[in-house]
Amino acid sequence: MNDLIKYGPALAEGFLENVKLSVMCGVLSLILGTVLVSMRVSPTPVLRAAGTLYVNIVRNTPLTLVLAFSALGLSDTLGLTLSQTPSTNSFWLVVLGLSIYTASFVCEALRSGINTVPLGQAEAARAIGLTFLQSLRLIILPQAFRTVIAPLGSVIIAMIKNTTVAVAGGYLAESAFVMKDTFDDTGASIPIFLGLAVAFMAFTLPIGFLTGWLGRRLAVAR
Amino acid sequence: MTENGDATPLVVLEGVNKHFGSLHVLRDINLTISRGEVLVVIGPSGGGKSTLCRAINRLETVDGGTITFDGQPLPAEGKALARLRSEVGMVFQSFNLFAHKTILENVTLGPIRVRGVARAQAEQRGMELLERVGIGSQASKYPAQLSGGQQQRVAIARALAMDPKMILFDEPTSALDPEMVQEVLDVMVGLARDGMTMMVVTHEMGFARRAANRVVFMAEGQIVEENTPDEFFTAPRTDRAKDFLSKILTH
Ligand SMILES: Nc1ncnc2c1ncn2[C@@H]1O[C@H](COP(=O)(O)OP(=O)(O)OP(=O)(O)O)[C@@H](O)[C@H]1O
Ligand SMILES: [Mg+2]
Hints:
The complex is a heterodimer.
Chain A: H1 2-40, H2 45-59, H3 63-77, H4 86-116, H5 119-127, H6 132-147, H7 149-168, H8 173-186, H9 190-217
Helix pairs in contact in A: 1-2, 1-4, 1-7, 1-8, 1-9, 2-4, 3-4, 4-6, 4-7, 5-6, 7-9
Chain B: E1 11-20, E2 23-33, E3 38-42, H1 49-56, E4 64-69, E5 72-73, H2 78-87, E6 88-91, H3 103-113, H4 119-132, H5 148-160, E7 166-170, H6 178-193, E8 198-201, H7 205-211, E9 214-219, E10 222-227, H8 229-234, H9 239-250
Parallel strand pairs in B: 3-8, 3-9, 6-7, 7-8
Antiparallel strand pairs in B: 1-2, 1-4, 4-5, 9-10
The structure holds adenosine-5'-triphosphate (ATP) and magnesium ion.
């Protein structure tokens, strides 16, 4: 227990980094996932193919490889710099990598939602003169989102837990050092592990409950 | 029949063909619909009535022949196609009201998003139309809270809100409980009286006799017979039509 008190502040700071990471990735992967699913259901074959290719490649690649690619491939080899400060730069590279990865799961969750929207909804939308993008944005996606809020919650929870992979992989230098130091010093004591596990649960459990509740509340009556 | 003094036909189909795979669902269809005309399409199941209806607003593409609407060939895609569709109303058998929108929003969505009408103005017009089809008091409800007959009347109001040049009806009363059929047909008869150009796929003979100018009998993808409602129902000329009428009359 003493360990927890002693290393608490440093761990809390590292944990806060994960929270920041989660919020950024959550927003970005929802946006990117929506763009991807729009491509996958679009009437343009090239866009459909590109969306399918993206999802199948990214979803089937281990997260560690995606993160390694965004850190090493994008940054070191291709010279992509998102910030002049090295630690900020690596933070954004992780955001990018994790969002690229999570977006493929968001896309597939949304696509299963779109499949539950009756074809007649899209036909009626087209019949009053809405364009494809308007039908998608005003009619199809709002209904699809409502049916997959709970599964989307699961995707986001998985993403939050995946932020630790970024930390453990050393892509988020600051947090990684804190964690490594702490584990080294304390011999990775049980209270430290429990403390971290509880912190994550305090973060993810409400998301599960909230999305479950919202999903039921916003269900579209047919 | 020339409502606004324009004698050119509104819709012209010439040599239209359509296949679903190896199934030939529209065979050399030639059909002209005048402005203000009410055309009833009748025929056995699978005869291609829905496909014909849907071809006119290009919900279904055709693979041969030409379709002209208001003097212009149907646009293939994009903004031009969306504009054409906004001028051709469509009422479906299964209503297809937007399930996550209120009744009023269903009626105002098109005017606001497609025509760029101001919200307040669209809502005022929407309420007028809902009153006209007798649903005014339900404006803030959701589609699932209404009966089938009420939903179909909203669907008609939604089509009317776009000020279409024509409305297509694909079996608008077939999914309704018998006691709700009349309320929908009454609205449609009212539209016909007001001079709306309508193409109606229906087996409701009462409606055809009361409101239609012409009946087209379709079977196996072909237009087999065209006549006035009275002559068609009392003295069909082809055996195919006689046979079909004897079946729907005796059931
Ligand atoms: N999307 C489709 N794909 C394949 N075949 C189809 C499709 N839509 C319709 N068909 C077939 O085309 C034929 C004509 O269908 P259509 O719906 O136009 O007939 P209909 O006259 O409206 O019949 P009903 O009275 O049953 O509504 C039918 O044999 C039908 O099975
Ligand atoms: Mg049909």
